[in-house]
Amino acid sequence: MKIETLLANLALNSDFKDPYGASHFPIYNTATFDLKKQEGNERIYDYSRSDNPTRNALENIFAKAENGFGCVCTNTGIAAISVLFETVLKNGDTVLVENDSYGGTYRLLKVLSEKNNIKTIYTDFTNLNLVEEELKNNEISLILCESPTNPSLKIIDLEEIGKLSKKYNTLFAVDNSMATFVSQKPLDLGADFSVFSTTKFISGHGSVTAGAVVSKTEELHQKVRFYANAYGNAQSPMDVYLTSLGLPTLVYRMKAQEESALIIAKFLKNFPQIKSVKFPALEDFEQYDLAKKQMSIIPAVLTIQLQDEETANQLINNTKLFEKKVSYGTSDSRLEIPAKMSHATNSKDSLASKGIDNATVRISVGLENTEDLIEDLSQALQ
C-alpha cells in the first residue's frame, strides 16, 4: 500500500474496529475503562496511561508507515528520545551520537551524564571511518543520529551506518523528525528504531506537541512499551486526535513546501549579505545525490549564513510573514537563530563544531504563497 493511501483513511487502515463505522477513529478521552464490559474482547483496556484505543489506532498507522513491528506514542518529541534512552541504556553505558544533534537531545544527554554516568561520544557521521573508529575502540550501546541534521542539514548515509551497527552488534536509532516516514524509512535502511517528533511536519499545524518510537522487532517494541508505561510518557487521546488531523495531507503538504523552499533557496543566493544557502534540493548541495537517493521528498528547511550577527537580526526583525519561532514543518513560515533559540543549551565549542554562530539562520518554509514569502524576505534584507 502506498503511503498516501495508508494516510487517507486512518479509521480503515489503523485496524480500529468501531461498531458505528466512524470515518475517523473516536476520541476515548477517559482515564479508566470498565473491565466487565470488555469480556470476550480481543484487547482489554483498563487505564489510559497504559493503553487507549485512540492512541493504539495512531500507533498502528505509524508502525505501518515506518515498516516496523510496533509503535509507542509519547507526549512530546523529546519524551520519545527519553524513553528510547531509558529502554536501551543503563548506568555507565556509552552512546555514539552525530555531532550535529538536536538541542533537546544534547541537553538530555548532558543530564544523563550527570545523573546516570552515561558517556556520549560525538563524531561526524558523514565520515564513516571516524564512526567505525569509535565503534572499534569503545563499547557502544546505542548509535543515534538525525538525517537531515538540524540545523546543519547534513545527510547521513543511514544504510552504511546500519551496516556498521550490525557489524559491531550495536543498536541503531534514527531521529526521523525532519524527513518523516513519507520521505525516508530508517528501519528499511538498517535502523532498529525510528524516533520522531509529530509536533512538526507530521501534525503540520503547530497545535500539538507529541512524539513516537517505532521499533523494528517485537522484542524491542515490548521493552519500549514497558518503559513508556513505567515513566508515564503516554500521549493523551486529544493530542492523538490533533496529530491525526495532519496525516491525510502530509505527503501533499511536504511536496508543496519542498517546491516553495527550492524557489526561495535559489532566490536567496542573489543577496550579497548571505554567505551561503544550504538546502538539500539544490543541485550544488554537497550531498545532493545522497539526499535524492535516501529521501523521496526534501523537507522544507533551509539554513543560511549571513555576513554578520547584525544582518541576521535585521532579517529576523524585519520580516512580516516569517515569525520568530522555534520548531519547523508547520503551515506557517518561521525563522530562528539556532545558537540563541533551539540550540541555546549547546556549548560554544559544540556550536562551533557544527558551523553554527549568531549569524546562522534556519528558515522553515510553510504553505503561504511563494511570491509573498520572497517579497517579505526581499524587503527585510534591503
Describe the structure.
The chain is α/β, with parallel strands linked by helices and 382 residues long. It folds into two domains: 3-248, Aspartate Aminotransferase, domain 2, CATH 3.40.640; 250-380, Aspartate Aminotransferase, domain 1 (Alpha-Beta Complex), CATH 3.90.1150. Helix content is 38%, strand content 15%. It has helices spanning 3-8, 10-13, 53-66, 77-88, 103-116, 128-137, 158-167, 218-231, 237-244, 250-268, 288-294, 309-318, 348-353, 370-380, and strands at 70-74, 94-98, 119-123, 142-146, 171-175, 193-197, 211-215, 274-278, 301-306, 323-324, 334-336, 360-364. Strands 1-7-6-5-4-2-3 form a seven-stranded mixed beta sheet, sandwiched between helices. Strands 8-9-12-11-10 form a five-stranded mixed beta sheet. Helix 5 (103-116) links the parallel strand 2 (94-98) and strand 3 (119-123). Helix 4 crosses helix 8 (218-231), helix 6 (128-137) runs parallel beside helix 7 (158-167) and helix 10 packs parallel to helix 14 (370-380). It is globular, with a radius of gyration of 21 Å. The relative contact order is 0.13. The mean pLDDT is 95.
